[in-house]
Amino acid sequence: MKRLASFRVLCGLVLFAAGLSVAVAAEPATSPEKADEDFKFQGEYAGTLNRDGERTEQGVQVIALGGGKFDAVGYHGGLPGAGWDGSDKVRASGQLKGSELVIANAEGDAKAVIRDGKMTISVDGSELGTLDRVERKSDTLGAKPPEGAAVLFAGKEADLKNFKEGARFENGGLREGFTSKQEFDDYKLHLEFMLSYMPEARGQARSNSGVYQQGRYEVQVLDSFGLEGADNECGGVYKAKAPSVNMCLPPLQWQTYDIDFTAAKYDGDTKTAPARMTVKHNGVVIHNNIEVPAGTPGGTQAEGPGPGPLFAQNHGNPVFFKNIWVVPKK
Q1: Same domain, 201 and 274
Q2: 125 and 187: one domain?
Q3: CATH code of the domain covering residue 36
Q4: Tens of pLDDT, residues 223-253
Q5: Torsion of CA 178, 179, 181, 184, to 10 degrees
Q6: Domain, as residue range, for 91
Q7: Same structural domain, 178 and 278
Q8: Considering the domain boundaries, does residue 139 fall inside one?
Q9: Most buried by CB count within 10 Å: which residue of 7, 110, 315, 325?
Q10: How many structural domains does the chain have?
Q11: CB distance 328 to 185 below 8 Å
Q12: pLDDT at residue 16 tops 50
């Protein structure tokens, strides 16, 4: 049991800066080629550990903080949405040392070392096991629009005609800050997005955008990889509902939102029923037919009757979108 206890001590070391806002010292990286040396260590690791003769699945998310410093979050049973049993997460901190990332407890009897895409965890010099770096992809990535869909962006600069002035095309993607010309009532939305890599930023300064249904109700877009999964983090319905599980993948990986949206109902100017939505983030349901009691500040219009556009907020951080289509509900 000492090994298990020491492992928990290791994972309990916390360098927790998720809620802080600090100045960004480097330009956001919009491709792996533009990222720093820390980028190749950041990501998800999964595999089997042998703890006192018991083999258990383990997932770990490693988050770059800049300057060779990292957070690590452990999940018993596997990664979020892929085996994690929902038990308490364990957090640790690490430091880059040469070509290795080393995470160790204060006593030095437990450590994890990442080298060449593998995380080896040991206690008292004995290995518990090795986790492999994995790159998950959403089941709905690349989904094809069905018949009757309004295809807003299919990866071509010519698709800018579907958006109001100010929409930007870059490297095959649509940048944050767009507003669709077409407006919608009830619908199903598919879109894909990629967060920029901003390791020295914190909290709301870390690759921030947001997708507004009807220009009124925001589903947050943020680099929340490894964070708690609050309502103002990726997948949250801003100021209304936190996601049931934080499904945010690391920056510079394409992610998906699939949103089934039902508009608020009005009798004249009197609201008789709130808006509702079901949200899948990377193929996993994180909101199931929830009520959205009010509109979100910062949209294109206040809550009210009538249709509205698809709007992606611009917070000054590079965020890329692609494969955007809407199926109106009859």
Answers
A1: yes
A2: no
A3: 2.40.128
A4: 999 999 999 999 999 999 999 999 999 999 9
A5: 130
A6: 2-134
A7: yes
A8: no
A9: 110
A10: 2
A11: yes
A12: no
Binning pLDDT at 50, 70 and 90, where does residue 84 land?
A: very high
What SS3 string covers the chain? CHHHHHHHHHHHCCCCCCCCCCCCCCCCECCHHHCCHHHHCCEEEEEEEEECCEEEEEEEEEEEEECCEEEEEEEECCECCEECCCCCCEEEEEEEECCEEEEECCCCCEEEEEECCEEEEEECCEEEEEEEEECCCCCCCCCCCCCCCEEEECCCHHHHHHECCCCCEECCEEECCCEEEEEECCEEEEEEEEECECCCCCHHHCCCEEEEECCCEEEEECCCCCCCCCCCCCCCECCCECCCCCCCCCCCCEEEEEEEEECCEEECCEEEECEEEEEEECCEEEEEEEEECCCCCCCCCCCCCCCEEEEECCCCCCEEEEEEEEEECC
Residue 14 — pLDDT band, cuts 50, 70, 90? very low
Q: What is the mean pLDDT of residues 19-33?
A: 68
Let me know if residue 124 belongs to a domain. Answer: yes
**Which pair of structure tokens corresponds to residue 160?**
């800018």
Domain containing residue 176: CATH number: 2.60.120.560
Chain segment 153-171, per-residue pLDDT in tens: 999 999 999 999 999 999 8
Task: Show the tokens assigned to 59.
Answer: 């997932």
Q: Which amino acid is at 155?
A: G
Last residue of a domain, one of 79, 105, 134: 134
The last residue of a domain, from among 104, 134, 164: 134
What residues contact 180, with CB distance under 8 A and at least 6 apart?
A: 152, 162, 163, 164, 309, 310, 311
Nearest CA to 256 out of 219, 288, 231 is that of 219
